[in-house]
Design goal:
Helix content is 44%, strand content 16%. It is built from 15 helices and 13 strands. Helix 1 (11-25) packs across helix 15 (339-348), helix 3 (67-85) packs across helix 4 and helix 7 (169-181) packs across helix 11 (258-267). With 349 residues, it is of the alpha/beta class. 51% of the residues are buried. It binds uridine-diphosphate-N-acetylglucosamine and uridine-5'-diphosphate. The site of uridine-diphosphate-N-acetylglucosamine has 18 residues, from helix 1, helix 5 and helix 10.
Length: 349
C-alpha cells in the first residue's frame, strides 16, 4: 500500500490535517509526524482529542527557539524518520517553520512533497510565514491551492506544474466539526450572550512587538463592549516582557480547543484577529471579521465585504467594531468543504 508522511506541529496544522488524514487513509497508510513546535496541551494535544486525529507515529519534540534553531532541529530530527519511512508523499500544511523544515528535508531526500494551502502570499517578506511559503511552494511537487488567487500567485512566480485548485481543508473542518461545536457550552460558560460580544485573537510576530502590542492593548481595552481573548502563549509572554495588560471589558482566557473556539466564534458579533485561519473560519460561519493587520493572504474575504483590514490603528479598530463589515451574501470562496477528498484523489486517484 502507498504511504504518506503527514507533518504537523502547530495549532492550525492539526485543524488542516484532521480532515485530510481521514481522506488519505482511504488510499494509503498515513504516518503522522509531530514536530512539537507547539507543545502546550491547549495548543496541541487538545486538537488530537477533539478532532479524533490518530496519535503521531513520530514525535520530534523540538519545542520553541529562534527560527534557525527550530528549523535546524526539525531538519535534523525528521531526516532519519523520512529515510526510515520512505513515503510516496510528504504532506505539509500552511506556512510555519515546521512546514519549511519538513519540506527542505524531504526535497533533499527526493521525496515528493504535497503542499496543502499553496500559493498564499502577503507580499511582505518581513513576515516569517511569507519566507516559509515561498520556499515551500518552490520545492513542492503538488501544490494544492484554496482559491484562484493563490494559483495566480504561483503562476506569477512561474510555478504552474502540479498546481491545482481544490478549495480549503479548513472549510472541510468547519463543515465536519461545526455541528459538533454546536454542542459546546463555551459561550454560556463564560456568562456571555450570543451576538453580544467580540471574540479576539492576537499572536502574529509583528503584533507581539512594540509599538504594535501597546497600541492593540490600548485599543481593545478602550472598546465599549465585552471582548473575549483566548491568549496565545507568545502574546502572554510578550505582555509580561513589556509590562502590559489588557483592561476595560477585555476578558483574557487561556487558549481554547477547536470546538470551544468555533462555538465562541459562531456566537460572536464579530471577530478581531490577526490569525490567518480564524479570518477564514469567521467567513465560513458568516461572522464579520476585523483584521489586525495591514495585509491579508485571504484577500477574497475582503473582496466579499466580510473582512476589513485595520492594522493596529486604534481609531480604525474602534470604528470597525462599531460598524463591522456586513456583506449582502456569503458565497463560498474556498470550495465546498470537500477539499480533502480532492487532494487524496489527486495524489492516489
Ligand atoms: C507559529 C507559526 C505561525 C502560526 C502559529 C499558530 C512560525 C514561524 N510561526 O507561531 O505561523 O500562525 O504558530 O499558532 O512557524 N509557546 C508556548 N507554548 C507552545 C508554543 C509556543 O509557550 O506550545 C511560546 C514560546 O514562548 C515560543 C512562542 O510561543 O517562543 C512562539 O512560538 P513559535 O512556535 O515560535 O511561534 P508562534 O507564534 O506559535
Ligand atoms: N484556535 C483554537 N483556539 C484558540 C484560537 C484559535 O482552536 O484559542 C484555532 C482556530 O479555530 C483555527 C486555528 O486555531 O483553526 C488558527 O490558528 P492560529 O490563529 O494559531 O494560527 P494561524 O491560522 O494564524 O496560522
Amino acid at each position: 500500500m502507498a504511504k504518506v508522511v503527514s507533518v504537523v506541529g502547530n495549532r492550525p496544522q492539526y485543524v488542516k490535517a484532521a480532515p485530510l488524514c481521514v481522506a488519505l487513509a482511504a488510499h494509503a497508510t498515513v504516518v503522522g509526524v509531530d514536530t512539537g513546535q507547539h507543545y502546550d496541551p491547549e495548543l496541541s494535544q487538545i486538537f488530537y482529542d477533539e478532532l479524533g486525529i490518530a496519535p503521531p507515529e513520530h514525535r520530534l519534540a523540538v519545542g520553541s527557539g529562534t527560527h534557525a534553531e527550530m528549523t535546524a532541529r526539525i531538519l535534523e530530527r525528521i531526516e532519519p524518520v523520512l529515510i526510515a519511512e520512505a513515503p510516496d508523499w510528504c504532506v505539509v500544511y500552511g506556512d510555519t517553520n515546521s512546514t519549511l523544515a519538513a519540506t527542505l528535508a524531504a526535497a533533499k531526500l527526493g521525496i515528493p512533497i504535497a503542499h496543502v494551502e499553496a500559493g498564499l502570499r502577503s507580499f511582505d517578506r518581513s513576515m516569517p510565514e511569507e519566507v516559509n511559503r515561498v520556499v515551500t511552494d518552490g520545492l513542492s511537487t503538488e501544490l494544492f491551492c484554496p482559491s484562484q488567487t493563490s494559483a495566480d500567485n504561483l503562476a506569477a512566480e512561474g510555478i504552474v506544474n502540479g498546481v491545482s485548485i481544490v478549495g480549503d481543508v479548513m472549510a472541510d473542518a468547519a463543515r465536519l466539526f461545526g455541528p459538533i461545536a454546536e454542542r459546546s457550552t463555551a459561550v454560556t460558560d463564560l456568562g456571555l450572550t450570543a451576538g453580544d460580544y467580540v471574540l479576539a485573537t492576537i499572536h502574529r510576530d509583528a503584533n507581539t512587538r512594540q509599538p504594535a502590542l501597546g497600541r492593540l492593548v490600548a485599543a481593545l481595552s478602550a472598546l465599549d463592549c465585552d471582548v473575549v481573548l483566548p491568549l496565545h502563549p507568545r502574546t502572554a509572554a510578550a505582555l509580561e516582557r513589556e509590562g502590559l495588560a489588557f483592561a476595560g471589558r477585555v476578558r483574557v482566557i487561556p487558549p481554547v480547543g477547536y470546538l470551544e473556539f468555533t462555538a465562541l466564534l459562531r456566537g460572536a458579533r464579530l471577530l478581531l484577529t490577526d490569525s490567518g485561519g480564524a479570518q477564514k473560519e469567521a467567513y465560513f460561519h458568516a461572522v464579520p471579521c476585523v483584521t489586525l493587520r495591514d495585509r491579508t493572504e485571504w484577500v477574497e474575504t475582503v473582496g466579499a465585504g466580510a473582512n476589513v483590514l485595520v492594522g493596529d490603528d486604534a481609531a480604525a479598530i474602534v470604528a470597525a467594531v462599531a460598524d463591522p463589515p456586513s456583506p449582502a451574501a456569503w458565497p463560498a470562496l474556498y470550495g465546498d468543504g470537500h477539499a480533502a477528498e480532492r487532494i487524496a484523489s489527486a495524489l492516489f486517484g
